[in-house]
Write a structure and sequence with these properties.
about 120 residues, alpha+beta, four-stranded antiparallel β-sheet, two-stranded antiparallel sheet, 3 helices, 6 strands, about 30% helix, about 25% strand, globular, binds zinc ion
């Protein structure tokens, strides 16, 4: 799964899910999370009821964390990762999700302009 912001492999940090459809738009990697939010996503108390974490409008996109789980099947332990969207999951409105995505596009465009091939 690729990061919606930098376009690189997102790893198992967060996933971006459109709430109405349940469609996974992509991942949100650790370095982009730190760049955008620092550690506030880990520390804050976020709630679906409060809408977008950044502006308070309706949150249309959830950014739950991947969580590692171990399932026991007979004698085998099967490790997997999954996410849960609850009322404490961070959500963003369409505008703020768009800013996270386009912020990096701008940076890429600037880099391309400064470095003509
Ligand atoms: Zn990223
Ligand atoms: Zn917002």
């Amino acid at each position: 799964m690729l990061c919606i912001s930098c376009g690189l492999e997102a790893g198992y940090n967060r996933v971006v899910v459109e709430l109405t459809s349940g469609v996974e738009l992509g991942g949100f990697c650790r370095s982009c999370e730190i760049a955008e939010f620092g550690r506030s996503l880990e520390r804050g108390h976020w709630s679906l009821n409060e809408g977008c974490a950044l502006c308070g409008r309706d949150g249309h996109f959830a950014l739950p964390r991947w969580e590692a789980t171990a399932t026991y099947r007979g004698d085998d332990v099967v490790g997997s990762v999954e996410y849960h969207i609850t009322d404490r999951t961070l959500t963003l409105c369409d505008e703020h999700l768009h800013r996270i995505r386009s912020g990096t596009e701008d940076a890429r465009r600037r880099a391309a302009a400064e470095d003509p091939v």
